Amino acid sequence: MSASDWLDAVKWNAQGLVVAIAQEVETGEVLMQAYMNREALEATRRDGYATYWSRSRSKLWRKGETSGHLQAVEEIRLDCDNDTILLRVRQTGPACHTGRANCFFQRLEGGRWVKTDPAPGTGASAARGGDEGILRRIAEILEERKGAPVEDSYVSALYAKGRNKILEKVGEEATEVLLAAKDGETDPGALVSETADLWFHCLVMLAEQGLGPDEVLAELERRFGTSGNTEKAARGGTG
Question: 0.85 exceeded by the pTM?
Answer without folding.
Answer: no
